[in-house]
Write a structure and sequence with these properties.
Layout: H1 2-16, H2 23-41, H3 46-77, H4 82-101, H5 104-126, H6 130-136, H7 147-173, H8 178-203
Helix pairs in contact: 2-3, 2-8, 3-4, 5-6, 5-7, 7-8
Length: 210
């Protein structure tokens, strides 16, 4: 009983230290859920409502996050990395494909593709690529943040992307109703935020690089 109380207290303190979800991370789920609701209310069929809600959510995320990221890179390094512009071009092409096919499976396969590409980029950064580290774990030149901690962040980012793929592919394998997919995918970023912040506090490396 005492041990249970101890672990309950530790869990409570840990969860209490987790910061709230940033507005940027809520952009996609909020737009996805609200667009789905509005389109269904306008008598769109489920397939078109799902695809268009997904595309609108992705569009909102791209134009709400990437420009800020590019500005942040300019502030830290004096110029934006070209990878950001490539990402925008790829995203626009992906939007067009999804709208053309208008198939929920195609849209969800893009989610898996995004996740796989993201994991590959994180692995590249973990292996020591400076461009990826500066893009996804940027620090000022005089910062004392260790390389080990920055690489650890990329490992957690890759793990989160892997969990997104697992959930997405599970929904496809189960042939879940589209409304259920919307409910799960719209809430997933919040659950992953809690997971990431908890894992970061439990696994962050201590000390300096060797």
């Amino acid at each position: 009983m005492i041990r249970l109380r101890y672990y309950s207290m530790v869990l409570w303190l840990l969860l209490r230290s987790i910061p709230p979800v940033s507005p940027g991370r809520l952009t996609m789920p909020v737009v996805f859920l609200s667009s789905w609701t509005v389109l269904r209310g306008l008598a769109f069929n489920e397939t078109l409502a799902f695809v268009w809600a997904g595309v609108l959510a992705q569009f909102a995320q791209v134009w709400g996050v990437l420009p800020v990221s590019l500005w942040h890179q300019r502030r830290l390094f004096g110029r934006a990395r070209p990878g950001g512009w490539y990402a925008i071009s790829f995203a626009l092409a992906a939007f067009g494909v999804q709208v053309f096919w208008a198939d929920p499976v195609v849209s969800q396969r893009f989610v898996t593709a995004y996740g796989g590409l993201y994991i590959a980029i994180m692995v590249w950064g973990i292996s020591g690529d400076r461009v990826v580290l500066d893009r996804f774990a940027p620090v000022p030149d005089q910062s004392k943040v260790s390389q080990a901690f920055r690489r650890h962040l990329l490992k957690l980012y890759a793990l989160v992307a892997f969990l997104v793929i697992v959930v997405n592919e599970t929904l496809l394998a189960m042939a879940a109703p589209l409304a259920a997919r919307v409910a799960v995918l719209a809430r997933l970023p919040i659950a992953l935020h809690v997971f990431f912040e908890t894992a970061l506090r439990l696994t962050a490396p201590l000390g300096e690089d060797s």
